[in-house]
Amino acid sequence: MAQRTWHMFFVIILIFTVLSLVGDVLSTSPGPWYENLPAVTMDYKVHIDPGKEDCYFQYVQPGATFYASYQVLKGGDGMCGFAVRHPNGKIVHPYEWRQSAEYADQTSSGGYYAVCIDNQFSRFAGKLVNLYLSVIRYDMWEKYAKEVEELDMNIKNFTHSIQFVERNINDILQYQYHSRARESRDYNLLQDNNAYVLRWSFIQILAIAATGTLQVYFVRKLFEVKDNSSKTRI
């Protein structure tokens, strides 16, 4: 019994140790999982209920470029409000009632931006809105370019690879063009054959009908009995 109690006590201590380690890792994490990516783009289609406002938050690294835009796809008068709030709490894009709008911050100080879409002026019609958000870190692209140079992936080799891919794409496009041309030719040939068969079939039907009519006519003429009244001689 004592051995089982000590075993349970050891398991509880182990669980608390693992949880504490996970908490330390999460607390030391500087930001979201996509923080170290050179570029993040998100494209949403969201439905805004009548008389409502929805806000979306996007984390932006210091020095990165933040871009947000929206476009009303359908619903009501086709317009809604749009506003962007800076991480410091300042409204950097004032509220506007439009069909589409955009905002860009070329050098962000970092933090969570709030992008709000407002449909409060529309009391009866919901709106379907396309929302696009992107965060680009050009310094990370430069870092990747240096790594590529270190791997001897120079501009000449890269250009050669692009030309090889482009040549293959052109070959595929030419093959698709010829396939479409053959398909169009075969389709026209089928239509011509169909018209030819229908035309000659109709002519043959007319010929058979006319021949049958003539045969019936002449057969009836053979069995026709003439009613000639004999004249009485005096």
From TrEMBL:
Record GO cellular component, one term: membrane
Record's bilayer topology term: Single-pass membrane protein; Single-pass type I membrane protein
Keyword Phosphoprotein in record: no
InterPro entries: Emp24-like (IPR015720), GOLD_dom (IPR009038), GOLD_dom_sf (IPR036598)
Main subcellular location of this protein, as a coarse class: membrane
Span of the signal peptide: 1-27
Cell compartment(s), UniProt: Endomembrane system; Membrane
Keyword Transmembrane belongs to the record: yes
Transmembrane regions: 197-219
Family: Belongs to the EMP24/GP25L family.
Name of the featured protein: GOLD domain-containing protein
Organism of origin: Parnassius mnemosyne (clouded apollo)
